[in-house]
């Protein structure tokens, strides 16, 4: 694999890359339509218009295709993190992520495939390992973005950045699932509301309600406000995100 | 089906109910282990220890079994809503839900099955219809609980209760997924953090940071705080939850 990568579209490498991409695209189409486990390699071959020999040259099977798709997700996640890092403010960055996730998974086939890949990752060790890696990278990248925002005073410094990153990621997944099951609603309303909630949640002053003591029970948020805000110095060596 | 239900354990109805429950349990075990689509009816029969005739007497196939499982979820959701309604405060109620969801789906097989059912509901019309119904009931029940809390002054009255219910539901789903992929972490830490975030989010005074204007960009939360808090009168006729 140490061949020099030629930029000429007709080069064997570029042709192979294109074919590989075509197989991935065709497989994605099949998976979206009938699901990962109900799709056979024969159906993928038929959808691609290539013979089995050609398809198996690139992928040993469906699991290898899923892995390649997850790797592709990783590249997209990296690109998203870079865009978020370049945003004007943390609010803009998070609003951008909410919008991008909402749009990317609006089609039910896409939301279904994402959900199925998660389910697969909970059962298959191989898919699970790939997912865990991409998840760890994403969460670390997002954590760094949050730490920088804290250091800049754009974000409540008392928040645990890593936990907040996990929370936001979970929230976006939940939004994608809800977006599907409430598809009859205004498609803009749900992402807009999630966006509002995030902004509200991460507001710099946090929640220090003078009315809090009037509420019955001691809200757990007191644990947060009780923490002395620490100035978090971002680890600049990690700022390449991942 | 208008037979009188006898309470005697040996009655034919009770026996049938038990057998039906056994089939559901066995199927759940298979689905958790190998996934919904990779499990055959034969495997379910083998796990149950019953012949195919007995199994098919209760369920026409795997889809009918999934439906029965979702119906069972519905009963559990109703019970959870009733418990939440009886909680001391809305903070207690939501903390209880966070804890219950975290515990119930801690095992990866359970989280995997939940995720797979969602994926199935995004593709199969039949499963999707059942899921939409249970989802609508849950969201309506939670919305009512939030409205009552608003009316009691325990919760920011400017929040859209229905959207907040959707947001919370999405957040819990996300927590369950994250809980799986970060299983190496302290199992209590993630639910505790989600709990803190919820309390922070729903604090009665909302987010009216005097420092907000210093942050770059106009945070979307201003849309919320700009809304004149309306006293929401809960529809008491709906208070049977669902």
Automatic annotation (TrEMBL), chains A, B:
Sorted keywords for this record are: DNA-binding, Repressor, Transcription, Transcription regulation
- In this chain the HTH tetR-type domain maps to 17-77
**Is Repressor a UniProt keyword of this protein?**
yes
Respond yes or no to whether keyword Magnesium is given for this record.
Answer: no
Name the domain of life this protein comes from: Bacteria
A Gene Ontology molecular function term of the record: DNA binding
What single Pfam family name could you report for this chain, choosing any that match? TetR_N
| Skewed-composition ranges (Polar residues) | 1-13
Q: Which InterPro entries does this one have?
A: BetI_C, DNA-bd_HTH_TetR-type_CS, Homeodomain-like_sf, HTH_TetR, Tet_transcr_reg_TetR-rel_C_sf
List the stretches of this chain annotated as a DNA-binding region. Answer: 40-59
Disordered: region residues: 1-20
Transmembrane residue ranges:
none
Q: Which PANTHER family match?
A: HTH-TYPE TRANSCRIPTIONAL REPRESSOR NEMR, TRANSCRIPTIONAL REGULATORY PROTEIN
Protein name according to UniProt:
HTH tetR-type domain-containing protein
The record lists the organism as: Oxalicibacterium flavum
């Amino acid at each position: 694999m140490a061949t020099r990568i030629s930029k000429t579209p007709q080069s064997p490498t570029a042709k192979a890359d294109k074919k590989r991409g075509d197989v991935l695209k065709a497989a994605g189409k099949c998976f979206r339509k009938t699901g990962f486990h109900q799709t056979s390699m024969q159906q993928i071959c038929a959808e691609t218009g290539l013979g089995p020999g050609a398809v198996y040259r690139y992928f040993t099977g469906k699991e290898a295709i899923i892995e390649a798709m997850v790797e592709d997700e990783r590249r997209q996640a990296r690109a998203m993190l870079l865009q978020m890092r370049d945003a004007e403010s943390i609010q803009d960055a998070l609003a951008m992520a909410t919008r991008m996730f909402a749009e990317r998974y609006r089609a039910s086939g896409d939301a279904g495939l994402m959900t199925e890949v998660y389910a697969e990752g909970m059962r298959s060790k191989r898919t699970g390992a790939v997912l865990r890696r991409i998840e760890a990278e994403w969460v670390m990248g997002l954590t760094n973005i949050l730490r920088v925002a804290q250091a800049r005073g754009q974000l409540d410094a008392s928040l645990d950045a890593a936990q907040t990153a996990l929370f936001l990621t979970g929230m976006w997944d939940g939004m994608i699932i809800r977006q599907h099951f409430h598809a009859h609603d205004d498609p803009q309303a749900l992402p807009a509301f999630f966006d509002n909630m995030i902004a509200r949640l991460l507001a710099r002053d946090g929640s220090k309600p003078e009315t809090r003591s009037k509420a019955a029970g001691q809200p757990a948020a007191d644990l947060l406000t009780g923490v002395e805000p620490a100035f978090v110095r971002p680890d600049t060596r990690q700022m390449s995100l991942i």
